[in-house]
Write a structure and sequence with these properties.
single chain; alpha/beta; Rossmann fold; eight-stranded mixed β-sheet; two-stranded antiparallel sheet; 6 helices; 12 strands; about 25% helix
């Protein structure tokens, strides 16, 4: 059966929650491969809550629905403070990208506490800003960062310079037709961090709408986190293939 937007492939999924150091309870979901240890772990940081971003934003949902089965990758996704989804509502209120520092730290600490291997931080839009501004407070706990459509609104040049010379792998996937930062502009801004690779997403826009662009984004993530799982299959056995909400 061909993979569709609403495809849900086999995984061990559990509702999780964890508390930040400033006392906010966050809700999320952990999706694991059905057997054996995962080859890598993705901790997702979702787009801007005030513009509808949450743990079910479509690329994040598709990663959780597909990658444990397709690529033997664990996926941890959660709602930033004050954000609600069908999973539930995280406590607190929007922190303008500053208080979300505590959310990022709590999510990483949770992944570490579960002994999840090869942790990668994956941000989309606003989530990339939270990573760039705050993730180095947990340096040594994660293997790399993957930035989907980084707008570089909140993250300053000083934030970028702190990543120069870091051992973590760094990749930014920048849509060709992005609303905020196109590939040429991204290459110029990120030139301050020569270790960071800018990858253009040909034809894509900021939201990666369309199955071809969703598949492109997921494949680029897998390319750096568990490349031996490529290419991702376009089909899955019908008896193991569920359809969730589109």
């Amino acid at each position: 059966m061909r993979i569709r937007s609403a495809s849900v492939l086999p995984a061990l999924r559990s509702d999780v929650s964890f508390r930040t150091s400033d006392g906010v309870e966050l809700v999320g979901e952990l999706s694991l491969p059905t057997s054996g240890a995962p080859s890598a772990t993705l901790v997702f940081f979702h787009p801007l809550p005030t513009h509808g971003g949450y743990m079910d934003s479509h690329l994040i949902r598709k990663a959780a629905n597909r990658l444990p089965a397709m690529a033997n990758i664990a996926v941890l996704r959660f709602n930033f403070r004050g954000v609600e989804s069908p999973r539930g509502k995280s406590e607190g209120s929007f922190g303008e990208g500053e208080l979300e520092k505590f959310d990022l730290e709590a999510a990483i600490d949770f992944a570490v506490s579960r002994n999840l291997p090869n942790i990668w931080l994956v941000g989309w839009s606003f989530g990339t800003e939270v990573i760039l501004k705050h993730a180095l407070g947990r340096s040594g706990t994660f293997k790399g960062i993957f930035l989907l459509a980084p707008p570089l609104h909140r993250a300053t040049n000083d934030d970028l310079l702190r990543w120069v010379g870091r051992p973590e792998k760094m990749v930014a996937l920048v849509p060709e037709h992005d609303d905020y930062l196109k590939p040429a502009e991204a290459a110029e801004r990120f030139a301050r961090v020569p270790e960071l690779q800018v990858v253009p997403a040909d034809g894509a826009k900021h939201l990666f709408v369309g199955e071809s662009y969703s598949s492109l984004a997921l494949s680029e993530i897998v390319k750096v986190t568990n490349p031996q799982a490529l290419p991702l299959p376009p089909e899955w056995p019908e008896e193991e293939h569920l359809l969730g909400a589109d």
